[in-house]
Amino acid sequence: MTTDNWPADTRTSYDTVAVSYAEQVRDAIAGQQYLRMALALFADSVRAAGGGPVADVGCGPGHVTAHLHRLGVDAFGVDLSPGMIDQARRDHPGLRFEVGSMTDPGLPAASVAGLVAWQSLIHVPDGEVPTVFRHFHRALRPGGPLQLLFHVGDGSRLKTEGYGGHPMRVHVHRRRPDRVATWLREAGFEIEAQLLLDPDGAAPQAFLFARREPRR
Question: Are the beta carbons of 65 and 59 closer than 8 angstroms?
Answer without folding.
Answer: yes
